[in-house]
Amino acid sequence: MRIALVAPSCPLKREAAERVSALAAARGDCELLIHPQCFLTDGHFAGSDSERLEAVREVMANPAVDAVWFARGGYGSNRIAAAAVRDLPVEARSKEFLGYSDAGFMLAALHRAGCQVAHGPMAQDVLRVGGEAAITRALDWLVRDDPSSLEPGLSRPSMAFNLTVLSCLLGTAVEPSFTGRDILIEEVDEEHYRIDRMMFHVTSSQTVRSCGGIRLGRCAVPENDRPFGAEEEAIVRDWCGRSGIPYLGRADIGHDADNKVVPFPVAGR
């Protein structure tokens, strides 16, 4: 199986690329193709918008590529997501796309366009404590759809997003349909008051209110200058209650090496 690594947001660290390449080579069941664009730099980004878009479109259209693995998060994929799925190459529909965090914009756009996408670990995660397990989990899913890679509570069709990304994509050209789907959310480096503010926005959305319910993953919350007065689960429960969205409990996703895979249902099914 050939898996292409591409970076729609920030550059991939070379140490991460070397370590992930070694793990993939040791498996013997996949070939990792790291697009040179992953190492470009243009300010914050892994190359200019046009360079990142060109690389994404190239691997999407390449018939020799079986899956596309987003290299890392950061910020930037929203700037190219809508253009990436415009006049979608037919080859893209036969590939699996994997990523999370800022790559959620790409997942949303691709899902809306009818592609197979999943929220799950990215190559940069190898640098986390316990990161090799995250890489193994991601490759197990991409190569053989290993059910042990999955978030264990997926009893119904589900989608997963970083909360900031979900909040930002609502009302845009890449917003997918949430009707009947469980939405799993996680967050990192946002204070409780910011989580509260984003939950106000997310649960006010009529498209989100059509979902089957919300599950909360892990939130790495920095200390604020004064306590908010409620933890993240209480915040999410409160806004779900106000909006009439079922709160369905916790989820095993987050910005860490324990992040599990959440395949989105194929659009229209």
Could you describe the 3D structure shown?
The radius of gyration is 18 Å and the shape is globular. The two termini are 26 Å apart. With 269 residues, the protein is an alpha/beta fold. The chain folds into 2 domains: 2-152, Murein tetrapeptidase LD-carboxypeptidase, N-terminal domain (Rossmann fold), CATH 3.40.50.10740; 158-250, 3-Layer(bba) Sandwich (Glucose Oxidase, domain 1), CATH 3.50.30. Helix content is 32%, strand content 17%. The longest helix is centred in the first third of the chain and has 14 residues, at 14-27. The strands form 2 sheets. The protein has a 6-stranded mixed beta sheet with strand order 2-1-3-4-5-10, sandwiched between helices. Strands 6-7-8-9 form a 4-stranded parallel beta sheet. Helix 6 runs parallel beside helix 7 and helix 7 (192-204) packs parallel to helix 8 (232-243). The model has no long low-confidence stretch (mean pLDDT 97). The chain contains 8 helices and 10 strands. The protein has helices spanning 14-27, 49-61, 81-84, 104-112, 131-144, 163-169, 192-204, 232-243, and strands at 2-6, 31-34, 67-70, 96-99, 116-119, 158-162, 182-188, 213-220, 247-250, 262-263.
Keywords:
269 residues; alpha/beta; Rossmann fold; Glucose Oxidase, domain 1; 2 domains; 6-stranded mixed sheet; 4-stranded parallel sheet
Brief summary of the model shown:
By secondary structure, the protein is an alpha/beta fold.
Number of strands: 10
How many domains make up the 3D coordinates? 2
Radius of gyration, whole Å: 18 Å
Segments where pLDDT lies below 50 for 5+ residues?
none
Using the coordinates shown, work out and report the CATH topology of the largest domain.
Answer: Rossmann fold
Ends apart, CA distance between termini:
26 Å
Neighbour order of strands in the largest sheet: 2-1-3-4-5-10
Query: Residue-averaged pLDDT, rounded?
Result: 97
Q: What overall form do the CA principal axes indicate?
A: globular
Structural class: alpha/beta
Q: Biggest sheet, in brief?
A: 6 strands, mixed
Question: What percentage of the residues does DSSP assign to strands (E)?
Answer: 15-25%
Determine and state the CATH class of the largest domain.
Alpha Beta
Estimate the helix proportion, in percent: 25-40%
- Helix and strand sequence: EHEHEHEHEHEHEHEHEE
The fourth-level CATH homologous superfamily of the largest domain is: Murein tetrapeptidase LD-carboxypeptidase, N-terminal domain
